[in-house]
Amino acid sequence: MEYQDSERSRELAGRARDFVDDVVIPRERELPGGTAVPDDVIAELREEAKSRDLYAPQIGEEYGGMGVDFRDVLPLFEEAGRSLLAPPAMRVDAPDEGNMHTLEMAGTEDQKDRWLRPLLEGELTSAFSMTEPRQGGGADPKMIGTTAEKDGDEWVIDGHKWWITNGGEADFYITLARTDQEKHPYEGCSLIVVPEDTPGLDVERDIPHLGDDVVSHVHSEIRYDDVRVPEENLLGEEGEGFTIAQKRLGPARLTHCMRYSGMAARALEVAKAYTSDREGFGDPIADKQGVRFEIAEAETNLHAARTMVRHAADEISRGNQARVEVSMCKFFTANVTENAINTALQFCGASGIGKDLPIADFYENVRQFRIVDGPDEVHKRVIARNAYENVDMDELDPLPTF
Ligand SMILES: Cc1cc2nc3c(=O)[nH]c(=O)nc-3n(C[C@H](O)[C@H](O)[C@H](O)COP(=O)(O)OP(=O)(O)OC[C@H]3O[C@@H](n4cnc5c(N)ncnc54)[C@H](O)[C@@H]3O)c2cc1C
């Protein structure tokens, strides 16, 4: 097996690294710790990314992107992950990146004109609205309770969602709802685009959560009460909701893995610099074997994660869903990056807790990765079903994971 990045991929990642090092990282330090980045900083960085031909590389050229193949674009996501400011600057940030992919894949030309092109330009922002409180769908999204019923030429949506990133800020919500109660949810759910100003769509609150999001992401609780949208807001075919969601989520999980790998790699870079500079007990902290062994372990695990992601991406590029491989990447990378960032924080001492360095923000951010896009256990469930029952997971219904 050969996981080498192509020349195009390396060239792109190299330029992304220069952009992050030379332009983005210096802007990080302008910000007081824990404070949301002002929109004008992101807007300026976006202009610079455009001028360097590094903007929305994953989206087709006909919609304003660069049309780079999924496998080739992945290493750029890793470089982008090295700063929390870089993904929005290069327009490779979640959830908009996954929503652009969904619209590109399943949208009509009218829907692409209305939502995809302005989303790519940063004129709009979006949300993916799937998870529900207690009695609805979470780790097991087939428990979905939100419904959409046809009334004339409109969809009427009723339901309750939460943890919806960008809730209250999004211009539209790609909403998963049950459109056929008779069918199994995997065949009876659809995706419907709900503009933010639709009557009956009520953002009840931003859910207080771990960490201050530097790149201001809110995660909201939302009610849909007799929300009416035109039938043409259906994304893809009726009943295809989970199928489209699954096609979105496989690649999106790998792009998440790469961004978090970049974050962990930067945390280790910072820790190596700190421990090389800081002395204690007679020599630099970096010379202590106890430190070196832990850094070596973190580097090894990170290398394994990055290699696994490249293998899964190769499979996806060959037209396979690679569900088992993607699940392996997702839970493994989530744990490896969390551990690497924790290690890096430890070896920076109090400076690791402080926000002069970026590690504290990374530490607050990385914990969610073991839960979002499917908790560890759900991915292990997929892997174990394949291991015990020799099930071809790609032949199955969409995965029960977000
Ligand atoms: C920061 C953040 C952003 C998010 N953004 C979005 C968004 O934009 N849109 C959206 O729709 N959702 C979003 N979510 C929700 C996220 O997708 C869900 O939290 C996730 O799918 C898990 O669902 P749950 O929280 O309801 O967990 P639950 O279903 O309540 O599960 C709780 C825990 O039980 C365990 N568990 C579950 N199933 C099993 C099993 N089979 N075996 C063993 N253990 C199990 C796991 O440890 C799991 O974490 C976000 C969440 C967070 C934290």
TrEMBL record:
<dbReference type="InterPro" id="IPR006091">
    <property type="entry name" value="Acyl-CoA_Oxase/DH_mid-dom"/>
</dbReference>
<keyword id="KW-0285">Flavoprotein</keyword>
<dbReference type="GO" id="GO:0005737">
    <property type="term" value="C:cytoplasm"/>
</dbReference>
<protein>
    <submittedName>
        <fullName>Acyl-CoA dehydrogenase</fullName>
    </submittedName>
</protein>
<dbReference type="Pfam" id="PF02770">
    <property type="entry name" value="Acyl-CoA_dh_M"/>
</dbReference>
<feature type="domain" description="Acyl-CoA oxidase/dehydrogenase middle">
    <location>
        <begin position="127"/>
        <end position="227"/>
    </location>
</feature>
<comment type="similarity">
    <text>Belongs to the acyl-CoA dehydrogenase family.</text>
</comment>
<dbReference type="InterPro" id="IPR050741">
    <property type="entry name" value="Acyl-CoA_dehydrogenase"/>
</dbReference>
<dbReference type="InterPro" id="IPR009075">
    <property type="entry name" value="AcylCo_DH/oxidase_C"/>
</dbReference>
<comment type="subunit">
    <text>Homodimer.</text>
</comment>
<dbReference type="Pfam" id="PF00441">
    <property type="entry name" value="Acyl-CoA_dh_1"/>
</dbReference>
<dbReference type="InterPro" id="IPR009100">
    <property type="entry name" value="AcylCoA_DH/oxidase_NM_dom_sf"/>
</dbReference>
<dbReference type="InterPro" id="IPR046373">
    <property type="entry name" value="Acyl-CoA_Oxase/DH_mid-dom_sf"/>
</dbReference>
<dbReference type="GO" id="GO:0003995">
    <property type="term" value="F:acyl-CoA dehydrogenase activity"/>
</dbReference>
<dbReference type="InterPro" id="IPR037069">
    <property type="entry name" value="AcylCoA_DH/ox_N_sf"/>
</dbReference>
<dbReference type="Pfam" id="PF02771">
    <property type="entry name" value="Acyl-CoA_dh_N"/>
</dbReference>
<keyword id="KW-0274">FAD</keyword>
<dbReference type="GO" id="GO:0033539">
    <property type="term" value="P:fatty acid beta-oxidation using acyl-CoA dehydrogenase"/>
</dbReference>
<dbReference type="InterPro" id="IPR013786">
    <property type="entry name" value="AcylCoA_DH/ox_N"/>
</dbReference>
<dbReference type="GO" id="GO:0050660">
    <property type="term" value="F:flavin adenine dinucleotide binding"/>
</dbReference>
<keyword id="KW-0560">Oxidoreductase</keyword>
<dbReference type="InterPro" id="IPR036250">
    <property type="entry name" value="AcylCo_DH-like_C"/>
</dbReference>
<feature type="domain" description="Acyl-CoA dehydrogenase/oxidase C-terminal">
    <location>
        <begin position="239"/>
        <end position="387"/>
    </location>
</feature>
<feature type="domain" description="Acyl-CoA dehydrogenase/oxidase N-terminal">
    <location>
        <begin position="7"/>
        <end position="123"/>
    </location>
</feature>
